[in-house]
Amino acid sequence: MIYCNAVKLFVVASGLLLSLSGCSSLKCLLNPPDWKSDNGAFFGSSPDASDVLGYYATLEGQSDEALDLEYRAVKKRYEADNDELDRWRMIGLRILPGRWFSSPDQALKLLQPPGAAGEARSSEIEGLRKLLVGQQRLLLDMQQQVVAEQERSAALEGQLEELKAIEKILSERERTRLPGSELKK
């Protein structure tokens, strides 16, 4: 349920970001962009928010086996050269709900802006980064609330079992008490 709400939030926010970024035809989602040019560099100086969202959309339609292969390949490339493209791919993979490699903690670490603080970034990609940071923090908060509720539920269940045991003891005492054996005043 938490993941469902987080995915809904991401989809709504992504749609809003796409509409604000001028991707009104949504062709970037239907025809995912080629992520690298022939020399392996980005088209332009930095990743585009619509390209990142397009990549995420393609991930959602892949089989578990394909996602597993994609995760392993992207992780290997990212660990080898810390490429900005692969960083955004890792973010996309880490925020996918319900996967063994999903991790809001790791996504938050990857979402920290790399490079110098004064480095120029596209306002779209910076907006997407901020949106994802908020979403992942919300997801972590919800997960903590679920853990707290599970602990509370387990404690209440234990108390209920103790009360049942006390009730059983009292019921057995009542049955074993002989008529007329009560103390008279």
- Number of H- or I-type helical stretches: 7
Shape: elongated
Query: How large is the share of residues in beta strands?
Result: under 5%
Integer count of domains: 1
H-E string:
HHHHHHH
Over the alpha carbons, how many angstroms does the gyration radius reach? 27 Å
Please identify the structural class as seen in this structure. Answer: mainly alpha
Instruction: Look at the structure and give the mean pLDDT.
Output: 76
Largest sheet: none
End-to-end distance: 62 Å
Count of β-strands: 0
Task: Describe the 3D structure.
- The protein is mostly helical and 185 residues long.
- The protein has one domain (2-143).
- Helix content is 69%, strand content 0%.
- α4 packs antiparallel against α5 and α5 runs antiparallel to α6.
- The protein is elongated and about 90 Å long.
Task: List its salient traits.
mainly alpha; single chain; 69% helix
Summarize the structure.
This protein is an all-alpha fold and about 180 residues long.
Topology, pairings included?
Elements (H helix, E strand, L loop, with lengths): L1 H20 L5 H4 L18 H12 L3 H18 L2 H11 L9 H8 L11 H54 L9
Helix pairs in contact: 1-7, 3-5, 4-5, 5-6, 6-7
